[in-house]
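Hi Prof. W.,

I finally got the Xanthine/uracil/vitamin C permease prediction working! I wasn't sure whether to trim anything, so I left the full sequence exactly as given:
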Amino acid sequence: MAIIYGLESRPPLRVLLPAAFQHIGLGAVTLVFPLLVAEAAGADERTTANYVSLAMIALGIGTLLQCWGRRGIGSGFLLPSVYTAIFLPPAIAAAHVGGLGAVAGLTMVAGLTSIVLSRVIQRIRVFLPAEVVGLVVTVLGIILGLLSLRLVLGVDEIGNGGTRDLPAGIVALLVTFGVAVWGGARLRTVAVLVGLGAGCLTHLVLLLAGLLPGSAAPEIHLTVISWPLAAPNLPLVYLPGFMVGAVAAAVRVMGDVVASQRANDPAWKRTDFRTVQGGMMADGLANVIAGAIGVIGMNSYSASVGLAAATGITARRVAAAAGLGWILLGLTPGAASLVMAVPRGVLGAVLLYAASYILMSGMTIITQRLLDTRRTLTIGVALLIALSYSEIPGMYAALPDYLLMTIGSGLVLGMAAALALNAIFRIGATHHAEWSWDPAQGTGALLDFVNEAGRSCGARAEVVGKAAHLLEEFADAAPLVVDPGQTVLVRARFDELHLDIDLAWQGEAMAAGAAVDLDADIEAAGFVSGLAMVLMRHHADRLEPTTLPDGRHGLTATIDDH
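And this is what came out:
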Protein backbone atom coordinates (compact mmCIF):
# COMPACT_ATOMS: atom_id res chain seq x y z
CA MET A 1 0.00 0.00 0.00
CA ALA A 2 1.23 3.51 -0.77
CA ILE A 3 2.49 5.65 2.10
CA ILE A 4 -0.22 8.04 3.29
CA TYR A 5 1.55 9.52 6.32
CA GLY A 6 5.33 9.17 6.02
CA LEU A 7 8.03 8.98 8.66
CA GLU A 8 8.16 12.68 9.57
CA SER A 9 4.49 13.42 8.89
CA ARG A 10 2.19 14.98 11.49
CA PRO A 11 -1.03 12.96 11.26
CA PRO A 12 -4.11 14.70 12.70
CA LEU A 13 -5.45 13.36 16.00
CA ARG A 14 -8.31 11.58 14.23
CA VAL A 15 -5.63 9.52 12.43
CA LEU A 16 -2.91 9.48 15.09
CA LEU A 17 -4.92 8.05 17.98
CA PRO A 18 -6.62 5.19 16.09
CA ALA A 19 -3.28 4.26 14.51
CA ALA A 20 -1.59 4.20 17.94
CA PHE A 21 -4.43 2.11 19.39
CA GLN A 22 -3.99 -0.40 16.56
CA HIS A 23 -0.33 -0.91 17.45
CA ILE A 24 -1.21 -1.18 21.14
CA GLY A 25 -3.89 -3.74 20.35
CA LEU A 26 -1.55 -5.70 18.12
CA GLY A 27 1.18 -5.71 20.76
CA ALA A 28 -1.22 -6.71 23.54
CA VAL A 29 -0.99 -10.34 22.43
CA THR A 30 2.64 -10.42 23.62
CA LEU A 31 1.61 -9.60 27.21
CA VAL A 32 0.93 -13.30 27.49
CA PHE A 33 4.72 -13.79 27.79
CA PRO A 34 5.22 -11.84 31.05
CA LEU A 35 1.99 -13.48 32.26
CA LEU A 36 3.52 -16.93 31.70
CA VAL A 37 6.73 -15.87 33.46
CA ALA A 38 4.77 -14.60 36.48
CA GLU A 39 2.87 -17.88 36.64
CA ALA A 40 6.15 -19.84 36.40
CA ALA A 41 7.47 -17.86 39.36
CA GLY A 42 4.40 -18.83 41.40
CA ALA A 43 2.99 -15.29 41.64
CA ASP A 44 -0.57 -14.84 42.93
CA GLU A 45 -3.29 -13.05 40.92
CA ARG A 46 -2.65 -9.60 42.36
CA THR A 47 1.11 -9.89 41.92
CA THR A 48 0.56 -11.10 38.36
CA ALA A 49 -1.70 -8.11 37.58
CA ASN A 50 0.94 -5.81 39.08
CA TYR A 51 3.61 -7.54 37.00
CA VAL A 52 1.62 -7.02 33.79
CA SER A 53 1.10 -3.33 34.67
CA LEU A 54 4.86 -2.90 35.08
CA ALA A 55 5.31 -4.76 31.80
CA MET A 56 3.09 -2.22 30.02
CA ILE A 57 5.12 0.67 31.42
CA ALA A 58 8.31 -1.01 30.19
CA LEU A 59 6.74 -1.40 26.73
CA GLY A 60 6.01 2.32 26.65
CA ILE A 61 9.57 3.24 27.59
CA GLY A 62 11.02 0.85 25.02
CA THR A 63 8.75 2.19 22.27
CA LEU A 64 9.69 5.80 23.06
CA LEU A 65 13.41 4.94 22.98
CA GLN A 66 13.04 3.16 19.64
CA CYS A 67 11.27 6.04 17.90
CA TRP A 68 13.65 8.67 19.34
CA GLY A 69 16.23 8.34 16.56
CA ARG A 70 18.70 10.90 17.93
CA ARG A 71 22.23 10.78 19.38
CA GLY A 72 22.61 7.15 18.42
CA ILE A 73 19.58 5.99 20.39
CA GLY A 74 16.63 4.55 18.49
CA SER A 75 16.01 3.76 14.85
CA GLY A 76 13.62 6.69 14.48
CA PHE A 77 10.98 4.44 12.87
CA LEU A 78 7.48 3.40 13.85
CA LEU A 79 8.77 0.25 15.53
CA PRO A 80 7.11 -0.40 18.90
CA SER A 81 8.65 -2.66 21.53
CA VAL A 82 6.83 -5.83 22.54
CA TYR A 83 7.58 -8.97 24.51
CA THR A 84 9.18 -11.77 22.56
CA ALA A 85 9.28 -15.55 22.60
CA ILE A 86 13.06 -15.33 22.11
CA PHE A 87 13.61 -14.87 25.85
CA LEU A 88 10.65 -16.98 27.02
CA PRO A 89 12.19 -20.48 27.44
CA PRO A 90 15.21 -19.37 29.54
CA ALA A 91 13.03 -16.84 31.43
CA ILE A 92 10.50 -19.50 32.46
CA ALA A 93 13.30 -21.83 33.53
CA ALA A 94 14.96 -19.05 35.55
CA ALA A 95 11.61 -18.04 37.09
CA HIS A 96 10.98 -21.61 38.27
CA VAL A 97 14.28 -21.66 40.18
CA GLY A 98 15.13 -18.05 41.05
CA GLY A 99 11.77 -16.31 40.83
CA LEU A 100 11.14 -12.93 39.23
CA GLY A 101 14.43 -11.58 40.59
CA ALA A 102 16.42 -14.03 38.45
CA VAL A 103 14.49 -12.99 35.35
CA ALA A 104 15.18 -9.32 36.13
CA GLY A 105 18.93 -9.76 36.55
CA LEU A 106 19.37 -11.93 33.46
CA THR A 107 17.27 -9.54 31.36
CA MET A 108 19.62 -6.69 32.29
CA VAL A 109 22.60 -8.76 31.10
CA ALA A 110 20.79 -9.48 27.82
CA GLY A 111 20.24 -5.74 27.39
CA LEU A 112 23.93 -4.99 27.96
CA THR A 113 24.81 -7.65 25.37
CA SER A 114 22.59 -5.92 22.81
CA ILE A 115 24.24 -2.57 23.56
CA VAL A 116 27.69 -4.06 22.89
CA LEU A 117 26.45 -5.62 19.64
CA SER A 118 25.12 -2.24 18.50
CA ARG A 119 28.66 -0.83 18.69
CA VAL A 120 30.30 -3.57 16.62
CA ILE A 121 27.59 -4.41 14.09
CA GLN A 122 29.36 -2.62 11.21
CA ARG A 123 32.57 -4.55 11.86
CA ILE A 124 30.79 -7.90 11.76
CA ARG A 125 28.28 -7.08 9.02
CA VAL A 126 30.13 -9.33 6.57
CA PHE A 127 28.74 -12.20 8.66
CA LEU A 128 25.23 -10.70 8.49
CA PRO A 129 24.59 -10.29 4.75
CA ALA A 130 21.23 -9.02 3.49
CA GLU A 131 19.94 -12.50 2.67
CA VAL A 132 20.49 -13.65 6.28
CA VAL A 133 18.57 -10.62 7.53
CA GLY A 134 15.85 -11.47 5.00
CA LEU A 135 15.79 -15.03 6.32
CA VAL A 136 15.26 -13.76 9.88
CA VAL A 137 12.36 -11.56 8.73
CA THR A 138 10.88 -14.47 6.75
CA VAL A 139 11.10 -16.89 9.69
CA LEU A 140 9.54 -14.25 11.94
CA GLY A 141 6.67 -13.92 9.48
CA ILE A 142 6.15 -17.69 9.46
CA ILE A 143 6.35 -17.98 13.27
CA LEU A 144 3.95 -15.09 13.81
CA GLY A 145 1.61 -16.48 11.15
CA LEU A 146 1.50 -19.93 12.75
CA LEU A 147 1.06 -18.39 16.20
CA SER A 148 -1.83 -16.30 14.90
CA LEU A 149 -3.55 -19.35 13.41
CA ARG A 150 -3.22 -21.23 16.70
CA LEU A 151 -4.69 -18.26 18.56
CA VAL A 152 -7.64 -17.99 16.17
CA LEU A 153 -8.36 -21.72 16.31
CA GLY A 154 -7.70 -21.95 20.04
CA VAL A 155 -5.28 -24.87 19.74
CA ASP A 156 -1.76 -25.57 20.96
CA GLU A 157 1.28 -26.62 18.92
CA ILE A 158 -0.06 -30.17 18.37
CA GLY A 159 -3.65 -29.18 17.65
CA ASN A 160 -5.20 -29.81 21.06
CA GLY A 161 -7.69 -27.34 22.47
CA GLY A 162 -11.11 -25.88 21.97
CA THR A 163 -12.76 -23.36 19.70
CA ARG A 164 -14.16 -20.99 22.32
CA ASP A 165 -12.62 -17.91 20.69
CA LEU A 166 -13.12 -19.15 17.12
CA PRO A 167 -16.36 -17.22 16.32
CA ALA A 168 -14.92 -13.91 17.54
CA GLY A 169 -11.62 -14.65 15.80
CA ILE A 170 -13.30 -15.44 12.47
CA VAL A 171 -15.37 -12.24 12.66
CA ALA A 172 -12.24 -10.19 13.46
CA LEU A 173 -10.37 -11.86 10.60
CA LEU A 174 -13.13 -11.30 8.03
CA VAL A 175 -13.73 -7.70 9.09
CA THR A 176 -10.00 -6.84 9.11
CA PHE A 177 -9.40 -8.38 5.69
CA GLY A 178 -12.61 -6.94 4.28
CA VAL A 179 -11.81 -3.41 5.40
CA ALA A 180 -8.20 -3.73 4.19
CA VAL A 181 -9.23 -4.96 0.72
CA TRP A 182 -12.53 -3.20 0.01
CA GLY A 183 -12.57 -0.30 2.46
CA GLY A 184 -11.89 3.26 1.39
CA ALA A 185 -8.46 4.86 1.74
CA ARG A 186 -9.33 6.37 5.12
CA LEU A 187 -10.99 3.21 6.46
CA ARG A 188 -8.09 0.96 5.44
CA THR A 189 -5.78 2.80 7.84
CA VAL A 190 -7.86 1.53 10.80
CA ALA A 191 -8.54 -1.99 9.52
CA VAL A 192 -6.95 -3.62 12.58
CA LEU A 193 -8.84 -1.40 15.00
CA VAL A 194 -12.16 -2.13 13.28
CA GLY A 195 -11.37 -5.86 13.31
CA LEU A 196 -10.45 -5.76 17.00
CA GLY A 197 -13.66 -3.95 17.84
CA ALA A 198 -15.84 -6.31 15.80
CA GLY A 199 -14.19 -9.38 17.32
CA CYS A 200 -14.48 -8.14 20.91
CA LEU A 201 -18.12 -7.14 20.36
CA THR A 202 -18.91 -10.58 18.94
CA HIS A 203 -17.28 -12.27 21.92
CA LEU A 204 -19.19 -10.05 24.37
CA VAL A 205 -22.56 -10.76 22.68
CA LEU A 206 -21.92 -14.51 22.71
CA LEU A 207 -20.80 -14.34 26.34
CA LEU A 208 -23.93 -12.45 27.46
CA ALA A 209 -26.14 -14.84 25.47
CA GLY A 210 -24.63 -17.81 27.27
CA LEU A 211 -23.32 -19.32 24.04
CA LEU A 212 -19.77 -19.73 25.34
CA PRO A 213 -19.93 -22.61 27.83
CA GLY A 214 -17.33 -22.51 30.55
CA SER A 215 -16.65 -18.81 30.00
CA ALA A 216 -17.06 -16.13 32.62
CA ALA A 217 -16.69 -12.39 32.69
CA PRO A 218 -13.07 -11.39 33.31
CA GLU A 219 -12.12 -10.48 36.86
CA ILE A 220 -10.78 -6.92 37.13
CA HIS A 221 -8.07 -6.19 39.73
CA LEU A 222 -8.03 -2.47 40.60
CA THR A 223 -4.58 -2.60 42.16
CA VAL A 224 -2.10 0.26 42.52
CA ILE A 225 1.36 -0.50 41.16
CA SER A 226 4.00 -1.50 43.66
CA TRP A 227 7.71 -1.74 42.86
CA PRO A 228 10.11 -3.48 43.15
CA LEU A 229 8.58 -6.93 43.07
CA ALA A 230 11.88 -8.73 43.69
CA ALA A 231 15.58 -7.96 44.03
CA PRO A 232 17.53 -8.84 40.84
CA ASN A 233 19.88 -11.81 41.06
CA LEU A 234 22.04 -13.60 38.51
CA PRO A 235 21.92 -17.43 38.32
CA LEU A 236 24.79 -18.05 35.89
CA VAL A 237 23.45 -21.39 34.64
CA TYR A 238 20.77 -19.54 32.64
CA LEU A 239 23.11 -16.83 31.32
CA PRO A 240 23.95 -18.54 27.96
CA GLY A 241 20.29 -18.77 27.02
CA PHE A 242 19.75 -15.05 27.64
CA MET A 243 22.93 -14.05 25.77
CA VAL A 244 22.04 -16.16 22.74
CA GLY A 245 18.59 -14.63 22.94
CA ALA A 246 20.19 -11.18 22.91
CA VAL A 247 22.04 -12.02 19.69
CA ALA A 248 18.82 -13.30 18.11
CA ALA A 249 16.99 -10.18 19.31
CA ALA A 250 19.70 -7.96 17.80
CA VAL A 251 19.37 -9.71 14.43
CA ARG A 252 15.60 -9.36 14.68
CA VAL A 253 15.98 -5.62 15.32
CA MET A 254 18.24 -5.43 12.29
CA GLY A 255 15.64 -7.22 10.19
CA ASP A 256 12.82 -5.01 11.47
CA VAL A 257 14.79 -1.81 10.89
CA VAL A 258 15.68 -2.94 7.36
CA ALA A 259 12.00 -3.76 6.75
CA SER A 260 11.11 -0.30 8.08
CA GLN A 261 13.67 1.28 5.76
CA ARG A 262 12.06 -0.52 2.83
CA ALA A 263 8.56 0.50 3.94
CA ASN A 264 9.56 4.17 4.12
CA ASP A 265 11.70 4.31 0.99
CA PRO A 266 10.28 2.78 -2.22
CA ALA A 267 13.74 3.22 -3.80
CA TRP A 268 15.50 1.35 -0.97
CA LYS A 269 18.70 -0.34 -2.11
CA ARG A 270 20.85 -1.28 0.88
CA THR A 271 20.92 -1.26 4.67
CA ASP A 272 21.49 2.05 6.48
CA PHE A 273 23.58 0.88 9.44
CA ARG A 274 23.20 4.16 11.29
CA THR A 275 19.54 3.45 12.01
CA VAL A 276 20.31 -0.23 12.61
CA GLN A 277 22.84 0.71 15.29
CA GLY A 278 20.40 3.13 16.87
CA GLY A 279 17.68 0.49 16.87
CA MET A 280 19.94 -2.07 18.56
CA MET A 281 21.06 0.50 21.13
CA ALA A 282 17.44 1.39 21.98
CA ASP A 283 16.54 -2.30 22.23
CA GLY A 284 19.44 -2.93 24.61
CA LEU A 285 18.63 0.09 26.77
CA ALA A 286 14.96 -0.96 26.86
CA ASN A 287 15.93 -4.39 28.17
CA VAL A 288 18.24 -2.95 30.81
CA ILE A 289 15.33 -0.77 31.96
CA ALA A 290 12.93 -3.73 31.74
CA GLY A 291 15.25 -5.74 33.97
CA ALA A 292 15.50 -2.85 36.42
CA ILE A 293 11.70 -2.66 36.50
CA GLY A 294 11.64 -6.41 37.00
CA VAL A 295 10.06 -7.77 33.81
CA ILE A 296 11.05 -10.04 30.94
CA GLY A 297 13.07 -8.85 27.93
CA MET A 298 11.56 -7.01 24.97
CA ASN A 299 12.28 -6.69 21.28
CA SER A 300 11.12 -4.73 18.26
CA TYR A 301 7.84 -5.90 16.74
CA SER A 302 7.84 -7.22 13.19
CA ALA A 303 4.04 -7.24 13.16
CA SER A 304 3.98 -3.48 13.63
CA VAL A 305 6.21 -3.08 10.58
CA GLY A 306 3.68 -5.12 8.64
CA LEU A 307 0.79 -3.10 10.07
CA ALA A 308 2.47 0.19 9.15
CA ALA A 309 3.07 -1.03 5.60
CA ALA A 310 -0.49 -2.34 5.34
CA THR A 311 -2.13 0.88 6.55
CA GLY A 312 0.25 3.32 4.85
CA ILE A 313 0.89 5.13 8.16
CA THR A 314 4.61 5.01 9.05
CA ALA A 315 4.85 8.28 11.01
CA ARG A 316 7.04 7.86 14.06
CA ARG A 317 4.69 10.14 15.99
CA VAL A 318 2.35 7.15 16.02
CA ALA A 319 5.05 5.24 17.92
CA ALA A 320 5.38 8.10 20.41
CA ALA A 321 1.62 8.08 20.95
CA ALA A 322 1.63 4.29 21.37
CA GLY A 323 4.50 4.50 23.88
CA LEU A 324 2.71 7.12 25.95
CA GLY A 325 -0.46 5.05 25.67
CA TRP A 326 1.28 1.98 27.10
CA ILE A 327 2.63 4.00 30.04
CA LEU A 328 -0.82 5.47 30.70
CA LEU A 329 -2.38 2.00 30.59
CA GLY A 330 0.26 0.66 32.97
CA LEU A 331 -0.48 3.43 35.48
CA THR A 332 -4.27 2.97 35.23
CA PRO A 333 -5.68 0.56 37.87
CA GLY A 334 -7.45 -2.36 36.22
CA ALA A 335 -6.10 -1.66 32.73
CA ALA A 336 -3.87 -4.74 32.79
CA SER A 337 -6.88 -6.96 33.48
CA LEU A 338 -8.87 -5.36 30.65
CA VAL A 339 -6.04 -5.79 28.14
CA MET A 340 -5.63 -9.43 29.11
CA ALA A 341 -9.40 -9.93 28.69
CA VAL A 342 -9.24 -9.40 24.90
CA PRO A 343 -10.02 -12.82 23.37
CA ARG A 344 -6.93 -14.61 22.10
CA GLY A 345 -8.71 -15.49 18.87
CA VAL A 346 -9.28 -11.81 18.12
CA LEU A 347 -5.62 -11.00 18.76
CA GLY A 348 -4.67 -13.89 16.49
CA ALA A 349 -6.81 -12.54 13.66
CA VAL A 350 -5.13 -9.15 13.53
CA LEU A 351 -1.72 -10.76 14.02
CA LEU A 352 -2.32 -12.94 10.95
CA TYR A 353 -3.05 -9.80 8.93
CA ALA A 354 0.29 -8.25 9.89
CA ALA A 355 2.27 -11.51 9.56
CA SER A 356 1.45 -11.76 5.85
CA TYR A 357 3.19 -8.43 5.18
CA ILE A 358 6.22 -9.44 7.25
CA LEU A 359 6.59 -12.70 5.33
CA MET A 360 6.51 -10.95 1.97
CA SER A 361 8.99 -8.31 3.18
CA GLY A 362 11.49 -10.99 4.19
CA MET A 363 11.12 -12.85 0.90
CA THR A 364 11.67 -9.60 -1.01
CA ILE A 365 14.89 -8.86 0.90
CA ILE A 366 16.21 -12.33 0.01
CA THR A 367 15.23 -12.28 -3.66
CA GLN A 368 16.77 -8.85 -4.30
CA ARG A 369 20.17 -10.55 -4.14
CA LEU A 370 21.72 -12.80 -6.75
CA LEU A 371 22.31 -16.07 -4.93
CA ASP A 372 25.07 -18.49 -5.83
CA THR A 373 25.27 -22.09 -4.59
CA ARG A 374 26.77 -21.06 -1.22
CA ARG A 375 24.07 -18.50 -0.47
CA THR A 376 21.26 -20.71 -1.77
CA LEU A 377 22.34 -23.54 0.52
CA THR A 378 22.74 -21.17 3.47
CA ILE A 379 19.21 -19.78 3.15
CA GLY A 380 17.51 -23.03 2.16
CA VAL A 381 19.08 -25.23 4.83
CA ALA A 382 18.73 -22.61 7.59
CA LEU A 383 15.04 -22.11 6.76
CA LEU A 384 14.38 -25.85 6.91
CA ILE A 385 16.26 -26.13 10.21
CA ALA A 386 14.22 -23.25 11.64
CA LEU A 387 10.96 -24.93 10.62
CA SER A 388 12.10 -28.30 11.98
CA TYR A 389 11.97 -26.92 15.53
CA SER A 390 8.17 -26.89 15.46
CA GLU A 391 7.62 -29.61 12.87
CA ILE A 392 9.89 -32.26 14.44
CA PRO A 393 9.83 -31.35 18.16
CA GLY A 394 10.77 -34.88 19.21
CA MET A 395 14.18 -34.48 17.60
CA TYR A 396 15.02 -31.66 20.01
CA ALA A 397 13.24 -33.00 23.08
CA ALA A 398 16.12 -35.39 23.77
CA LEU A 399 18.69 -32.59 23.96
CA PRO A 400 20.10 -31.59 27.36
CA ASP A 401 18.14 -28.90 29.19
CA TYR A 402 20.91 -26.31 28.85
CA LEU A 403 20.91 -26.74 25.06
CA LEU A 404 17.12 -26.50 24.89
CA MET A 405 17.24 -23.26 26.86
CA THR A 406 19.99 -21.94 24.59
CA ILE A 407 18.09 -22.73 21.39
CA GLY A 408 14.75 -21.53 22.70
CA SER A 409 12.89 -21.18 19.40
CA GLY A 410 12.96 -21.89 15.69
CA LEU A 411 14.10 -18.31 15.10
CA VAL A 412 17.24 -18.73 17.23
CA LEU A 413 17.93 -22.14 15.69
CA GLY A 414 17.50 -20.91 12.11
CA MET A 415 19.55 -17.79 12.74
CA ALA A 416 22.37 -19.81 14.31
CA ALA A 417 22.33 -22.22 11.35
CA ALA A 418 22.43 -19.34 8.84
CA LEU A 419 25.31 -17.59 10.63
CA ALA A 420 27.28 -20.84 10.93
CA LEU A 421 26.73 -21.85 7.30
CA ASN A 422 27.56 -18.34 6.09
CA ALA A 423 30.84 -18.41 8.02
CA ILE A 424 31.71 -21.92 6.80
CA PHE A 425 30.89 -21.22 3.16
CA ARG A 426 33.08 -18.12 3.22
CA ILE A 427 36.05 -20.51 3.26
CA GLY A 428 37.49 -20.33 -0.23
CA ALA A 429 34.99 -17.68 -1.31
CA THR A 430 36.12 -14.45 -2.88
CA HIS A 431 34.56 -11.06 -3.52
CA HIS A 432 36.56 -10.50 -6.68
CA ALA A 433 36.78 -12.26 -10.03
CA GLU A 434 39.18 -11.95 -12.96
CA TRP A 435 38.93 -13.15 -16.55
CA SER A 436 40.54 -12.58 -19.93
CA TRP A 437 37.89 -11.91 -22.55
CA ASP A 438 38.49 -12.29 -26.25
CA PRO A 439 36.20 -9.98 -28.27
CA ALA A 440 35.79 -12.85 -30.72
CA GLN A 441 33.90 -14.74 -28.00
CA GLY A 442 31.04 -12.29 -28.28
CA THR A 443 29.00 -10.37 -25.73
CA GLY A 444 27.30 -13.43 -24.25
CA ALA A 445 30.47 -14.77 -22.64
CA LEU A 446 31.17 -11.38 -21.05
CA LEU A 447 27.65 -11.19 -19.61
CA ASP A 448 27.92 -14.73 -18.26
CA PHE A 449 31.09 -13.71 -16.44
CA VAL A 450 29.58 -10.67 -14.71
CA ASN A 451 26.40 -12.55 -13.75
CA GLU A 452 28.40 -15.38 -12.20
CA ALA A 453 30.63 -12.87 -10.38
CA GLY A 454 27.52 -11.11 -9.06
CA ARG A 455 26.08 -14.36 -7.71
CA SER A 456 29.32 -15.35 -6.01
CA CYS A 457 29.54 -12.06 -4.10
CA GLY A 458 25.80 -11.65 -3.42
CA ALA A 459 25.31 -8.32 -5.16
CA ARG A 460 21.80 -7.12 -5.87
CA ALA A 461 20.30 -8.06 -9.22
CA GLU A 462 19.85 -4.38 -10.14
CA VAL A 463 23.54 -3.62 -9.56
CA VAL A 464 24.67 -6.61 -11.61
CA GLY A 465 22.20 -5.61 -14.32
CA LYS A 466 23.83 -2.17 -14.57
CA ALA A 467 27.26 -3.81 -14.83
CA ALA A 468 25.98 -6.11 -17.57
CA HIS A 469 24.61 -3.17 -19.60
CA LEU A 470 27.91 -1.31 -19.15
CA LEU A 471 29.96 -4.28 -20.39
CA GLU A 472 27.55 -4.75 -23.28
CA GLU A 473 28.27 -1.20 -24.45
CA PHE A 474 32.01 -1.80 -24.12
CA ALA A 475 31.74 -5.03 -26.09
CA ASP A 476 30.18 -3.14 -29.02
CA ALA A 477 33.21 -0.85 -29.20
CA ALA A 478 35.87 -3.45 -28.35
CA PRO A 479 36.57 -4.67 -31.93
CA LEU A 480 37.56 -1.09 -32.86
CA VAL A 481 39.80 -0.30 -29.86
CA VAL A 482 41.37 -3.67 -28.95
CA ASP A 483 44.29 -4.80 -31.11
CA PRO A 484 43.51 -7.89 -33.22
CA GLY A 485 44.32 -11.12 -31.41
CA GLN A 486 44.52 -9.38 -28.02
CA THR A 487 42.27 -10.03 -25.02
CA VAL A 488 40.68 -7.73 -22.47
CA LEU A 489 41.46 -8.29 -18.79
CA VAL A 490 38.20 -7.96 -16.82
CA ARG A 491 38.19 -7.65 -13.03
CA ALA A 492 35.10 -7.41 -10.80
CA ARG A 493 35.17 -6.53 -7.08
CA PHE A 494 32.31 -6.13 -4.60
CA ASP A 495 32.53 -4.88 -0.98
CA GLU A 496 28.81 -4.73 -0.01
CA LEU A 497 28.76 -1.02 -0.93
CA HIS A 498 30.25 -0.80 -4.43
CA LEU A 499 30.74 -3.01 -7.47
CA ASP A 500 33.95 -2.07 -9.30
CA ILE A 501 34.66 -3.20 -12.87
CA ASP A 502 38.22 -2.80 -14.19
CA LEU A 503 39.01 -3.27 -17.89
CA ALA A 504 42.50 -3.32 -19.43
CA TRP A 505 43.50 -3.90 -23.08
CA GLN A 506 46.22 -3.35 -25.64
CA GLY A 507 45.14 -1.02 -28.42
CA GLU A 508 43.45 2.36 -28.69
CA ALA A 509 42.11 4.47 -25.83
CA MET A 510 38.38 5.00 -25.50
CA ALA A 511 37.21 8.52 -26.34
CA ALA A 512 36.74 10.37 -23.05
CA GLY A 513 34.22 12.99 -24.19
CA ALA A 514 31.05 13.53 -22.21
CA ALA A 515 29.02 13.93 -25.41
CA VAL A 516 29.07 12.47 -28.92
CA ASP A 517 30.17 14.58 -31.90
CA LEU A 518 27.15 14.21 -34.18
CA ASP A 519 29.10 15.57 -37.18
CA ALA A 520 31.71 12.81 -36.99
CA ASP A 521 31.83 9.72 -39.21
CA ILE A 522 29.56 7.17 -37.51
CA GLU A 523 31.79 4.36 -38.77
CA ALA A 524 34.92 5.86 -37.22
CA ALA A 525 36.43 4.22 -34.15
CA GLY A 526 36.38 7.52 -32.27
CA PHE A 527 32.65 7.97 -32.80
CA VAL A 528 31.80 4.39 -31.77
CA SER A 529 33.99 4.45 -28.65
CA GLY A 530 32.74 7.93 -27.74
CA LEU A 531 29.13 6.77 -28.00
CA ALA A 532 29.98 3.71 -25.89
CA MET A 533 31.56 5.95 -23.23
CA VAL A 534 28.45 8.15 -23.07
CA LEU A 535 26.21 5.10 -22.65
CA MET A 536 28.54 3.50 -20.09
CA ARG A 537 28.49 6.67 -18.00
CA HIS A 538 24.72 6.30 -17.89
CA HIS A 539 25.05 2.89 -16.20
CA ALA A 540 27.95 3.68 -13.84
CA ASP A 541 28.09 6.09 -10.92
CA ARG A 542 31.74 6.78 -11.77
CA LEU A 543 33.72 5.95 -14.92
CA GLU A 544 37.41 6.82 -15.27
CA PRO A 545 39.72 6.12 -18.25
CA THR A 546 43.20 5.01 -17.15
CA THR A 547 46.59 4.23 -18.63
CA LEU A 548 48.50 1.35 -17.05
CA PRO A 549 52.31 1.39 -16.46
CA ASP A 550 52.80 -1.23 -19.19
CA GLY A 551 51.10 1.03 -21.75
CA ARG A 552 47.73 -0.72 -21.82
CA HIS A 553 44.59 1.37 -21.78
CA GLY A 554 41.88 0.82 -19.20
CA LEU A 555 38.58 1.81 -17.67
CA THR A 556 37.46 1.71 -14.05
CA ALA A 557 33.69 1.74 -13.51
CA THR A 558 32.06 1.96 -10.07
CA ILE A 559 28.41 1.13 -9.43
CA ASP A 560 27.17 2.03 -5.96
CA ASP A 561 24.95 -0.48 -4.18
CA HIS A 562 22.64 2.17 -2.74
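The two ends are 23 Å apart (CA to CA). Does that look reasonable to you?

Thanks,
D.
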